[in-house]
Design brief:
By secondary structure, the chain is an alpha/beta fold. It has 15 helices and twelve strands. Bound molecules: pyridoxal-5'-phosphate.
Length: about 375
């Protein structure tokens, strides 16, 4: 069965009400018929639900569907993307371990890596997303995990998953990939050798900007550690959010197809515009890692970014001149969104760190929505004219 068919047909067991669509299991805890069943569940001798911080049928459906999509053995769903990222670090790294991290990562992940991991004695090194030679040289005897995003947020750098998985295997490291930007309908890091895949389900997986969520999927033995960490520390996904997100997954493939068609068209039309220094989209032939993108992605995703010639001032003016695109701190919505990373999501980085990851003062990130491509393009073009 194709994974998309399998995902759509993966569902919680039908209740006596014979519902077609999965109901919401809004319950904190679950009942047992007798003391023996309860004892066995607590002793992990059965898979019975005990408490929604541990498991919940609707949350499990979402996780099972994500496992189908990513080709993973197991998973755990969390309250947000950041709790999935944090749990994947805290459950698997310990004092004295070293994390090798691609330097172009989401702003809050950067904060966790640089501010919080060192508090627990976990070391880190950043390596240049675009320079593979740096990676092997940065591996130490205590390196335990490689963490990366591809495409990166917001610079859209592409890292060769086949190459980095071979590097991780050679040095016996866990390869942990944030697959938020590509989504599993375009890119499946586990097929290349990743041990873990993390997601902000808040983005394309929801696709409609409604709820926060996160998920980590991967090898069973790694997920078991993450599950035990989360079960005790409590970043569980809410059953309501799981119901919303699980339904969303049924349309992910068709939604992403249209997002990508719109994004490519917009990127092609904006290329060479007199107010833009450069434009980046993974499936534009001018992208520096185009050949890697087409090797590992089915489509280029829904994010386009470009650099305005006038820097910070033009960036602000461009946003102020938009008439239809939303100015909001999200991406992966049906509605197109424009953002200015240097003054928002990546403002906590130093100027030097922003420079190293191509987050220039005039960088604009467009999350291309499902409106008609010409309407999105025309709004961008008129804002460019006026900025
Ligand atoms: C690549 C990436 N990873 C992780 C996150 C964090 O996800 P959340 O906002 O759901 O915590 C984000 C949020 O923008 C993101 O873009």
């Amino acid at each position: 069965m194709h994974p998309i068919t399998k995902l759509i047909r993966t569902q919680t067991e039908r209740t006596n009400e014979m519902e077609h669509s999965t109901p919401m299991f809004l319950t904190s805890s679950f009942c047992f018929d007798n003391a023996e069943e309860m004892r066995a569940a607590f002793a992990d001798e059965t898979d019975d639900n005990i408490y929604s911080r541990f498991s919940n049928p609707g949350v499990r459906e979402f996780v099972d569907r994500m496992c189908v999509l990513e080709g993973a053995e197991a998973g755990y769903a969390t309250s947000s993307g950041m709790s999935a990222v944090f749990a994947s670090f805290m459950a698997l790294l310990k004092q004295g371990d070293h994390l090798l991290c691609c330097n172009a990562i989401f702003g809050s992940t950067h904060t966790v890596v640089t501010k919080y991991l060192p508090k627990y004695g976990i070391e880190y090194s950043y390596v240049n997303a675009g320079d593979p030679a740096e990676w092997e040289a940065a591996i130490r005897s205590n390196t335990k995990m490689i963490y990366l995003e591809t495409p990166t947020n917001p610079g859209l750098d592409i890292i060769d998953l086949e190459w980095v998985a071979a590097l991780a295997k050679k040095h016996n490291l866990i390869l942990n990939v944030d697959n938020c930007f590509a989504t599993p309908v375009s890119q499946r890091p586990i097929e290349f050798g990743a041990g873990l895949v993390v997601h902000s389900a808040t983005k394309w997986l929801d696709g409609q900007g409604r709820v926060l969520g996160g998920v980590v999927v991967g090898k069973k033995e790694l997920i078991q550690e993450i599950y035990l960490f989360c079960r005790s520390t409590g970043p569980a996904m809410s059953p309501f959010n799981a119901w919303v997100l699980s339904k969303s997954l049924e349309t992910l493939d068709v939604r992403m197809e249209r997002h990508a068609v719109n994004a490519l068209l917009i990127a092609e039309k904006l290329a060479g515009h007199s107010k833009i220094t450069w434009i980046k989209y993974p499936f534009l032939t001018s992208h520096p890692q185009y050949s890697i993108a087409i090797k590992q992605m089915k489509n280029g995703g829904g994010i386009v970014c470009f650099e305005l010639k006038g820097g910070l001032k033009s960036g602000r003016s461009f946003l102020n001149n938009l008439k239809m695109l939303s100015l909001t701190a999200n991406l992966g919505d049906t509605r197109s969104i424009a953002s200015h990373p240097a003054s928002t999501t990546h403002a906590k980085l130093t100027e030097q760190e922003r420079f190293a990851t191509n987050i220039t003062p005039g960088l604009i990130r467009i999350s291309v929505g499902l409106e008609y491509a010409d309407d999105i393009l025309n709004d961008i073009l008129q804002a460019l004219e006026n900025c």
